[in-house]
Design goal:
Elements lengths: L1 E6 L6 H11 L2 E5 H8 L7 H7 L14 H10 L1 H29 L4 E5 L14 E6 L2 H12 L3 H10 L3 H7 L2 E4 L4 H16 L8
Parallel strand pairs: 1-3, 1-4, 2-3, 4-5
Length: 207
């Protein structure tokens, strides 16, 4: 089993890549955002600490869970609160991912375990993953997709882009790059070639 971390800028089209891999290969997909949300639910490992951190904020649902839209608004306007949340949630996500990796390794039923995370490099998942893949889409195309698919303003997109790693940094940490600027089928063909190389044992690079 190869443990692959997949990353790239917001709007790069990672979801379509992951869907294709799930449908065509013997793999399990983990999404860091979904794991984080689960670990923030009442009764979870992070909940009590988050309840103290955000107790006075209007970010709660009647059942005690987070209203993630209101929470996002607070985090966007309060850097200290965002950093404090990250210090609680990110290590918990990493521990969960590491445990799932150990479990899947012992079961030995998958060809690939795949983790998608926006902060894959920043959170040093290269220490857990066998290799990192970069989904590359130009800023121009990502901007267009974010406007069309999510209704983001130029101001919001500029803010997101400014907070993300440079293309050079992504490339420096990732052993594979998939160009997702064209049709989805073009990216899928690149994935097939990469996986064919790995499964045939012809991928001789030192990861």
């Amino acid at each position: 089993m190869i443990f692959i971390g997949i990353t790239g800028g917001v709007g790069a089209g990672k979801s379509a890549i992951l869907t294709y891999m799930k449908e065509n290969y013997c793999c399990r997909i983990m999404l860091a955002d979904e794991i984080a949300h689960e670990l923030m639910q009442p009764g979870s490992v992070c909940y009590d600490r988050l309840q103290i951190l955000f107790g006075a904020e209007d970010v709660w649902q009647p059942d005690g869970s987070f209203d993630h839209i209101k929470l996002a608004s607070v985090l966007f306007s309060d850097d200290q609160k965002r950093e404090a949340l990250n210090r609680i949630v990110h290590p918990a996500v990493k521990l969960f991912v590491a445990a799932q990796y150990e479990m899947e390794q012992s079961r030995d039923q998958l060809d690939f375990l795949i983790l998608e995370a926006a902060l894959l490099i920043e959170e040093k998942y290269d220490a857990i993953c066998d290799e990192l893949w970069y989904i590359y889409t130009s800023e121009e195309n990502r901007r267009e997709r974010l406007k069309e698919n999510r209704g983001y303003s130029n101001e919001k997109i500029d803010s997101i882009f400014a907070s993300q790693l440079s293309e050079e940094t992504f490339r420096a940490h990732c052993v594979e790059e998939i160009d997702n600027n064209g049709m989805p089928e073009d990216a899928f063909r690149q994935i097939d070639l990469i996986i064919s190389r790995k499964m045939s044992g012809t991928d001789r690079r030192n990861h």
